[in-house]
Every structure is written in C-alpha cells, then in structure tokens.
Task: inverse folding
C-alpha cells in the first residue's frame, strides 16, 4: 500500500453551487495514508507544480491523485512531472471533478465527489508500481495507417534515427491519396508526388512495413507499449513472391475493384495499384473461385516462385514500442444511404473518389472522363457539394473541409478534358481558406464552371439522363437539369473500425467516431494518453496539406518524447 | 379480424368506387370493416398553424370515438389517413395540446388508438402471400404504375409508413395481385393537391409530369389510394389534352378496384364507370371483362 497525495485544483469550479472544496479536503483528511491538499491559484503554473512536488516530498507520498476540471489536459503534464520528480508516473491519476459534479445528486454534490474520489484513492493506494520503472524506455514507434499522414510521420521518425513499424490493414501503403488523380491548388499529379514518398518509405532502413495487418490489442504506457498485431492471411507467401504480376493477369475471377470505387475491374488476387509498395498481392477469399467454389488454383499453377499458399492462416505478432501515432484516415459517407439521391441505385451518380479514379491516368478509363453506365463522354456534369455534410438533422453536422476545393478541382479537370462540356456546381458556401485556394476557385469560375447556390432535392434516372432537381437560391428559381453524370461530394467520416481501435488504445472518440485530441487549439496531435498521438483525417476532415502538417507534428512529438529519455538504453528489434 | 372503418366524405360521394370496392374486398379476404358511428369530416388538411386547436378537433373526436368503439381504425383515403395519424401523434407527444383538445371536445383521449391504412392491413394482417393465394383472376401482368403521392409518406418522421425515398409496399401489393409494378421517378411526387381549385394550370403540369413519366416507363395504367390524387391525375387529363395534344391518356384506377378485380368480384360492382378515363377498354384488351 502506498501513500496518496490528493491535490485539488479549484479552477473553473468556483461557480458550482453547493460545492465546497474545503469541506471535501477536511473529509478526506481522516483517511489513512491520504493527505489532501488544495491549491490556489493554478496548479498547472510553475509555482503550482513546485508546491505539489514539495507537498509530496515533505510528506513522503509516493503517489498522486489530481482532481481538476480538465483531466485530459492535465494527465500528460502530471505524468511527465512525476517522472521528473523521480516518482513512478503510473502511480498518478487525474480525476475529472467536473464530470463527477455533473453526474451526482445535485443536492449534495460534495459527498458525491468524495465517494467517487475515495474509490479512486483506494485503487491508487493498492496499485502495484509499474514493472517498466527502471526498464529501458523503448525508442521505437508504431504508426497505424499508411496514408500520407502515416507515411510522413514514418519518414520523419526514420530520418531522425528511430525505428518505425508502419502498420496498415491494406496490402500496401499510400492510403486515400493514392486514389487521387491530381491535387489542388497546384494540380500536381497525386501519384507523381506520392510515389517517391511511398518508395522512400518502402526502402527506408529504419521503417518496417507491417502490411495487411490490424491491431489486436494494446497495453502498457509511453516508452513501453506492448502491441499485438493480427497479420491477415494473404494466401501468398510474400517472402517468395517476386511481384511479377502474372497471378493477377491470369486470375479468372473478375470483380469490381474497391480501390477503383467499383467503377473499374479487379481480380480476386490483387495489389492496389501497379506501383504498390510493397508490390505483393493478396487473395480475397470472398470472391476467389478456389475459396468459393473449391476449384481453380490458376494462380498457384502460374506462379513461377511457388508463392501461393491457400492454407495460410492469420498470425499474431507481438511488438514493443515506445510511442504510437494513429493515422487511420477517412471513408466517404456511403451514397447507398442517401435516399434523395437514389440510394446509390441511379447509374452515373458517383462520389468524389470515383471521379478521381475516372480522371486518373492509372484508372479504369486511363484518365478519360467516361460515365460508368455506357462509357459515353458526359456533356453535362453536375457536382453537388455538402452531400451529407452540414446537415445535422439527417446526416453529419460538420463541414468536411476539403470538398469545396476538390469539387472545383473536379470541375476544372473535367473542363480541361471535355472542352465543350458544361460543369455545374451546387454549393452552400464556398470555403476556400488556404494558400492559393481562393485563387484556384476564381480561376475555375473564369474557366466557365457555373456555380449555383442551392441544394439538390432529388436525383433520378430518366431517359438515360440523371435528372437533377435543385434550387438556385440567388435567383429564387427551381432548377431542373438532365445531366449526363452527377458527382457527389459526400461527407468524410472516420474509416471503418476507428472506434474499435480507439477503444483498444484507450483514447477517446467524438460523437461521429473521429479521434479526440487532448485539446483542439494547443494540443492538436496529442491524446489524453502520453505516448499516443494523432495525425490526419482520423482526427477530423482535412486536406492533404493539413494532414501532412499533422504527420510532421506527430512525428516531432514522438521525437521530443524519445529525446527526454536520453539515458535509457535503446531497445532495437533483433531484426 | 375487425377494424373500425373511417370512410371520409369523398368516399361517400365522388370516390364511391374506392370505398365500395374496399368494403367488398374486405369481405372476401375475411376481415370486417365496421363503420365508425357518427363520423365527421377529418378536417381535410393537417393544420400547420401552431395554435390551431379548432382544426385538430374533428380528427381528435374521430380518434376518441375510435378508442371508445374499441379497435384499430383504418382508412382508404390517404388524406384522411395523414390528418388522423398526425393528429394522433401530436396528442401522444404534446401534453399541453392534448389537454386543450380534450377540454374543447369534451372527451378524454390520450392518443392510444391505433391507425392503419388499408394497404398496411393487407401487408401486415392479411399478408401478401395470403393475398396471392386468394387472388382468383389473373391480371396478366398488367403494367401498373403505383402513384403514392405525398400523404401516405410525408412527413416521414410522423407517418413512418415505408421507406421515405423509395417505398415498396404498393409494388409488393401489385405483385401479389399479378400486376407488373412499373417503377417511375415521379411516384412520390405531389399530384398538385388543392391547386386544382385555385390554379388548375399548376395542377395540370404536376399531373402531366407524373403521367408522362409513368407512360415513358411503360405503364398501361396508374393506380392511387387517394381521391385527391385521383382527381388531379384522372379527371384533369382533359386539361392536359388541351395543352399537350399528343398526350395519349392513361387510365387511373383505385387500388381497391384492382384488388377487387383480382379477387374475382363481379366487374359491375367495381364501378369503373366512375373513373374519368375509362379503364374498361384496357381491361377488355387484357381479357379481364
């Protein structure tokens, strides 16, 4: 049993009626091995922290319970301070006093807080000191998610000399950015800018790719996380595979490719793209003829390396890392759930990522804008912004941030390729705050994109066209159009499984499933847990520029954490 | 099975063909429609003014009486269904309004009557499989476009009738009675409603859009559940012809008339003479007369 110092910070609690911090400290004073301490003014100030240190040291207390109104901000500070004072950080805890006040009986708020705090005190007194105390601090990072955020962070950390495990559930890195055709505001080819990065990541001596894998469980703390990773069965022995691509060429199972957003063909054995890093295929047993019908084995027959292994099973790997960056990215709100736009059943109504594939030189139409239903070049294309975004009653209340820009980009790229084509954009507002963004929009208007301020109430197929019923709120007129194709800028939502992953990591998510940062303004890439950081759209919708900045930021936070432990021996993997 | 039946005013006059066929079919399908006693007009529109207790009194009285007479209330007319169902929800949800209404109508009603549309009875209680078995006359895959209009569906949160953007109950019904349902994009659009009184040119345009879309998608007939829809897309076809000379016209048949036909009721009982665009030549062509 240890001795607990209880520190009460009354900041932001002054206005709570009936709450009496002095009475609370008096009540706690009677407990064995507990010393309460109330501190004004802010505990988090330099003098405040010094006062706590002195209080703990003078009274021989080895553990601390900090009760304050902002636990998510204070937890990392306290842990760091404990370490600095030569105490075990795992013997500190922060108590959410405001939460306790809100939940309790309003007539007797002090007793309620006391009861809850006593539970925490008992738990803290009984806590066994962390085994990691004295164990070396592992200076090795794990990045979850191999999109541009994860790639950026991995390269930064690798260049700083730290070993990085880059985990992705897909067979190769690149994430959403690899699906894009060109990027705003400079209209660079996404693949041309990204591929050097993916190649650098793949070849980096400090970066190890752990592909086609998902996080099974996480335990431990900063400096010593133990992560169990499930490596999904690829049914291909990647050590033997040379990446020649013959298996994909000969595979007879043709299915719509997920990477091509369903508008291009794929195979049951596939890599995400010809430039995939690593360039190793996996078999999708859900569509593979051998797995579904028991007959085929064509890939096995043609593979010159003998790499196909239908018996392969999932494997579990354990890894120790000192810090984790979560960069799991986004999905688009499924158009199949949007009734007014036909539940995804109207042909030639596609989402933004599908348009990226249509426009991509490596896409199913080799970059020619051809509508999916009949391959014709559309002469009238309607783009709709804010689909399922900014719609609190039915869909997502937030702005997805990138759509104004990418819709303008789509319309411009369309006009560049189909000179006599007409592009219409339905919008609510145009949000173009970024370097060169507003100029990009203006340029689009000069190129002849017609912006209509208003929403579209329905889309349906009629006579080979997509009929668009909308309104132009600037003229007050209803607008009806027979478009050849409609592109929906659907809301960004957290990628599937993000919530589950957050639960395993012990970090919070908001009501929509985006990962919650420690504080939006001053701690944007930190979480409430020391050693776990966020980057990219997993935290909230953002564009590539912001995503990369966060990747850099998260990597620098990890470097700062690792640099604090100059003296501990570095644990390198034996590989 | 017994249901309290609220016919509504129009079904006693202009829409007798909707009413009588519905009653006859109930007998064949083995459920009883007991007419609510002393019923009045439903109010004809659900009041949108926030303080219009007066307009809520008639549907509230109907609901209170239905509760007294003790079973589920059903209607054929979509407008009556809409007004009564929404009033019921309001009484359930708003205690202040409930008390005001009860004081006003001098009854005590807590919102606990159940209200079903006739189509819902067919789907939930009779079952479309049983209906398929009970159908005696093969309608030969007649291509029928189901016109839902607004009143069965909107507002979605209050009506909770079927999928808000892509309902299917009407199609399922048509399949069960051996028709081929025709999907067409205008099936949940507005028929023009009461614009046919004050601004008939507006209603004519609505009707023209609906009917020409049904025709383009291959319909031989359109079916409705609502006397107001029926008026706008059936009786107004004269006006459509005047404006669009090449409009070929299309019969509009109440769903109960189609049901009666399928159940083998004598054709004279189905009162096809009341439909403005005579459906009998089509039925003759299909060998159903």
Result:
């Amino acid at each position: 049993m240890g001795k607990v110092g209880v520190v009460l910070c009354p900041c932001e609690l002054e206005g709570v009626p009936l709450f009496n911090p002095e009475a609370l400290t008096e009540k706690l004073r009677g407990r064995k091995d507990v010393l309460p301490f109330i501190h004004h003014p802010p505990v988090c100030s330099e003098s405040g922290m010094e006062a706590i240190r002195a209080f703990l040291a003078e009274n021989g207390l080895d553990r601390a319970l900090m009760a304050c109104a902002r636990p998510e901000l204070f937890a990392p500070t306290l842990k760091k301070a404990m370490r600095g004072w030569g105490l075990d950080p795992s013997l500190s805890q922060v108590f959410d006093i405001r939460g306790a006040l809100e939940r309790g009986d309003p007539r007797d708020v002090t007793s309620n807080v006391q009861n809850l705090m006593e539970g925490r005190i008992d738990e803290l007194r009984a806590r066994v000191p962390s085994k990691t105390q004295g164990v070396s601090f592992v200076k090795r990072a794990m990045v979850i998610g191999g999109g541009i955020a994860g790639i950026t962070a991995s390269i930064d950390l690798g260049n700083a000399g730290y070993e990085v495990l880059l985990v992705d559930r897909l067979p190769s890195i690149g994430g959403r950015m690899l699906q894009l055709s060109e990027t705003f505001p400079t209209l660079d080819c996404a693949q041309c800018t990204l591929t050097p990065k993916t190649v650098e990541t793949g070849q980096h001596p400090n970066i190890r790719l752990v592909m086609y894998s998902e996080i099974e469980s996480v335990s431990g703390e900063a400096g010593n996380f133990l992560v169990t990773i499930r490596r999904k069965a690829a049914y291909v022995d990647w050590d033997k595979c040379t990446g020649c691509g013959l298996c994909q060429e000969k595979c007879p199972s043709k299915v719509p490719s997920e990477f091509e957003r369903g508008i291009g063909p794929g195979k049951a054995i596939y890599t995400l793209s010809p430039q995939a890093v690593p360039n190793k295929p996996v078999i999708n047993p859900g569509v593979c003829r051998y797995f579904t019908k028991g007959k085929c084995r064509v890939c096995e027959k043609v593979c010159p390396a003998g790499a196909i292994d239908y018996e392969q099973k999932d494997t579990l790997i354990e890894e120790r890392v000192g810090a984790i960056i979560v960069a799991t990215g986004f999905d688009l709100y499924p158009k199949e759930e949007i009734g007014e736009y036909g539940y995804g059943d109207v042909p030639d109504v596609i989402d933004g990522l599908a348009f990226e594939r249509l426009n991509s030189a490596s896409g199913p139409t080799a970059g020619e804008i051809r509508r999916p239903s009949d391959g014709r070049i559309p002469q009238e294309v309607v783009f709709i912004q804010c689909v399922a975004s900014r719609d609190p009653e039915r869909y997502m209340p937030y702005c997805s941030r990138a759509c104004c820009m990418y819709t303008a980009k789509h319309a411009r790229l369309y006009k560049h390729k189909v000179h006599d084509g007409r592009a219409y954009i339905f919008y609510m507002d145009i949000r173009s705050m970024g370097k060169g963004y507003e100029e990009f929009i203006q340029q689009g208007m000069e190129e002849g994109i017609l912006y209509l301020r208003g929403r579209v109430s329905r889309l349906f197929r009629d006579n080979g066209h997509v009929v668009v019923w909308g309104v132009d709120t600037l003229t007050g007129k209803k607008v009806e159009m027979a478009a050849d194709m409609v592109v929906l800028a659907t809301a960004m939502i957290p990628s599937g499984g993000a919530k589950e992953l957050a639960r395993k990591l012990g970090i919070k998510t908001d009501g929509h499933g985006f990962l919650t940062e420690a504080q939006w303004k001053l701690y944007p890439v930190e979480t409430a847990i020391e050693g776990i950081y966020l980057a990219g759209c997993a935290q909230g919708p953002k564009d590539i520029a912001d995503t990369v900045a966060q990747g850099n930021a998260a990597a620098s936070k990890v470097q700062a954490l690792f640099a604090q432990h100059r003296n501990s021996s570095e644990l390198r993997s034996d590989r | 099975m017994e249901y309290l039946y609220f016919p509504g005013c129009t079904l006693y006059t202009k829409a007798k063909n909707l009413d009588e066929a519905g009653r006859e079919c109930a007998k064949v399908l083995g459920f009883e429609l007991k007419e609510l006693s002393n019923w009045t007009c439903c109010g004809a529109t659900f009041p949108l003014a926030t303080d219009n207790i007066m307009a809520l009194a008639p549907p509230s009285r109907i609901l209170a009486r239905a509760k007294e007479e003790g079973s589920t209330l059903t209607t054929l007319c979509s407008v009556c269904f809409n007004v009564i169902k929404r009033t019921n929800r309001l009484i359930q949800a708003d205690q202040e309004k409930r008390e005001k209404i009860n004081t006003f109508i001098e009854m005590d009603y807590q919102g606990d009557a159940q209200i079903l549309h006739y189509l819902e009875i067919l789907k939930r209680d009779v079952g479309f499989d049983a209906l398929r078995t009970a159908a005696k006359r093969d309608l030969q895959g007649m291509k029928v476009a189901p016109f839902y209009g607004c009143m069965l569906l909107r507002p979605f949160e209050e009506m909770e009738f079927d999928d808000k953007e892509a309902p299917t109950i009407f199609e399922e019904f048509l399949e069960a009675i051996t028709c081929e349902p025709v999907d067409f994009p205008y099936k949940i659009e507005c028929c023009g409603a009461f614009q046919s009184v004050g601004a008939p040119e507006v209603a004519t345009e609505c009707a023209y859009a609906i009917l020409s879309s049904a025709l383009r998608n291959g319909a031989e007939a359109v079916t409705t559940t609502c006397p107001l829809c029926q008026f706008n897309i059936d009786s107004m076809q004269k006006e459509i012809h005047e404006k669009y000379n090449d409009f070929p016209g299309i019969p509009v048949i109440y769903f109960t008339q189609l049901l009666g036909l399928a159940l083998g009721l004598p054709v004279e009982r189905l009162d096809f003479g009341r439909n403005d665009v005579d459906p009998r030549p089509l039925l003759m062509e299909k060998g159903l007369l």
Summary: The interface with chain B takes residues 339-340, 342-343, 458, 460-463, 467 of chain A (CB under 8 Å). The domain at 140-224+322-329+505-563 of chain A is CATH 3.50.50.60 (FAD/NAD(P)-binding domain).
